[in-house]
Predict the structure.
Amino acid sequence: MRASLRDTEFIEFVTAQRSALLRMARLLTAGEEASAEDLVQTTLTRLYVHWPRVRRAGNPVGYARTSLTHAFVDERRRAYSRRETPTDEVRDGISEETDQDLAHTVLAALATLAPRQRAVVVLRHFLDLDVAETARVLGCTTGTVKSQNAKALERLRSTLEPAITVSTTTQEL
Amino acid sequence: MNDLNTLLDRAAGPAVVPFDPYADLTRAQRALSRTRRRRSAMGLLGIAAAGVASVGVVRYTGPDDGPSQAVERYGANGRQAGISFLSQPFVAGPYTFDETPAGWEVQGSYPEGVTIAPVGFPDQQRFSFVGKLVIMFDGNPLGGGDEVDIDGRAFMVSESDDYTTISTRTAAGEPEGVVRIQYPSGTGWTRDTMLEFLSGVHVGPDAQQGLG
């Protein structure tokens, strides 16, 4: 059976972008692998259903990132409970860190953030989006992005330091 | 000093993991199919609403015919052609239809026939037939064309560039005459979907033969 243009374009997009979306989802979910995979599947499905609109928008990657972020925030809004991760637990084993230990530590620190703060950190400091673009993705004001970012960085630093000192190349405010 | 971007990059996991894009495609296609079915069902509700607003011009019959209990059904050919039917009978004046084409609505009924058009069709004049589905009842000869037999009933199919007309004699117990359906090309209807639709048209005793 001949594939439709939608199918062909979708396969090309998935082939090129799925791994990157899964990495973003892994950070948003603070390393919950199953949740990250669910988010990616939800996002890709939404993209396919609205593919003509995605095509017209001319920025499928941006559309996917926004959709993924919204799916994450929506899902956490329903299920989120403020579970504080004990700081001592985060710091365990940092001194002899391997890559895997470091990843685990950073993900555990991300888990201490509220969902929207985590989303701000991922959008600003992982995807390197500017404040305005981050605000657009999250559907909030640039002021909210700045304040959430400041609180998130403060929280991350208090969780990770002094074992890991955090700096940012991205302008923090 | 650790740059946050670098920390996040390492925490995000491997840059490439094996996956099957066709699994995503299959999942997404199923979701799109479900979405389209829901939209078709909403088309039925739109027809129902139009019928209620038309002060009885169209009304649904039977105790089990409420929209919430409508059972969606697609004929194989109808699905390919973009016309889907819902097993939802409706009445338009003296004419009764066994099935409802999703996304189409009755514009008007009269003793000699019924005019049906896509929902939101710009031309709302019920006696204007361009681009619409028209069901007519008359006493003229059956007419020429390809003969198709469905359950022992003969249907004559006459095709032109712009329209196709299918005619059949009324069934036993109905006013004697010929019921015809005329449908425009390029609107998703095919000979098979229209034959299925016309097979479910019943002519009531108050129908009057038009001049044809």
Q: What stands out?
A: Confidence is low (pLDDT under 50) at residues 51-81 of chain B.
